[in-house]
């Protein structure tokens, strides 16, 4: 293997320089013990400076606090957040109804309404006396028929029977044996007159007396009508 031909490096031209100027003499290295003393002194200075800075930072200057009453700062907006109240617990109480009575006490029966007083039964006709005549029996039947139809006084009924042709004796006997209540007959007669027309008390009493009722019977009959 052949080597390349040798080439001569190009020559460099420098500007001409004068003779070297003399410089400062070279510094000699300091001894080791002087360097250690310097380092220790520098550490003490740094330590003192650090202590001074720490003391200065620890002391806080006291600023006068202005009275709250003299200067009132702007009021802070207060936001009230109302937390929803917890729902009350629902307690279900089931009341146990008392056991129903197996048998109800019997209710007292209502008192029956008082029955109206029965109307007095008409007095039975007296049994015919022994030896009663046919005229008397007929007069008695006619007298009862008249009393069932209308009200009569004793004397008025006798006159009516006489008008029918009965003898005074038979008519009187028949009227006395009817068992009629002449006070009640006076009351019925007074009411019949008032149903037909108007009367004063004195006028009605007088009318009943005209019909054959006694004064006492007429007064009683008119009083029953309310006059």
TrEMBL record:
Residues 136-177, 181-223 form the Putative host cell surface-exposed lipoprotein Ltp-like HTH region domain. Residues 1-28, 107-129 have a biased composition (Pro residues). One of its GO terms (molecular function) is acyltransferase activity. Keywords: Acyltransferase, Membrane, Pyruvate, Transferase, Transmembrane, Transmembrane helix. Pfam families: Lipoprotein_Ltp (PF07553). The chain crosses the membrane at residues 36-57. Residues 97-106 have a biased composition (Low complexity). Residues 1-30, 97-139 are annotated as: Disordered. This is Pyruvate/2-oxoglutarate dehydrogenase complex dihydrolipoamide acyltransferase (E2) component. It comes from Modestobacter versicolor.
């Amino acid at each position: 293997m052949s080597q390349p031909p040798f080439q001569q490096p190009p020559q460099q031209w420098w500007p001409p320089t004068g003779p070297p100027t003399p410089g400062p003499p070279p510094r000699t290295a300091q001894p080791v013990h002087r360097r250690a003393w310097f380092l220790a002194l520098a550490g003490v200075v740094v330590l003192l400076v650090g202590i001074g800075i720490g003391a200065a930072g620890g002391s806080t200057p006291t600023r006068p606090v202005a009275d709250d009453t003299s200067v009132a700062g702007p009021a802070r907006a207060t936001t009230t957040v109302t937390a929803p109240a917890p729902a009350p617990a629902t307690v279900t109480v089931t009341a146990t109804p008392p056991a129903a009575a197996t048998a109800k006490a019997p209710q007292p029966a209502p008192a029956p309404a008082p029955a109206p007083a029965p109307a007095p039964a008409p007095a039975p006709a007296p049994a015919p006396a022994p030896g009663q005549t046919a005229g008397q029996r007929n007069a008695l039947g006619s007298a009862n028929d008249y009393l069932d139809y209308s009200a009569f006084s004793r004397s008025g009924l006798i006159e009516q029977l006489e008008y029918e042709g009965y003898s005074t004796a038979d008519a009187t006997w028949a009227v006395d044996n009817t068992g009629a209540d002449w006070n009640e007959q006076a009351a019925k007669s007074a009411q019949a007159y008032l149903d037909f027309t108007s009367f004063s008390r004195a006028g009605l009493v007088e009318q009943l007396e005209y019909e054959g009722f006694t004064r006492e019977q007429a007064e009683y009959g008119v009083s029953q009508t309310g006059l």
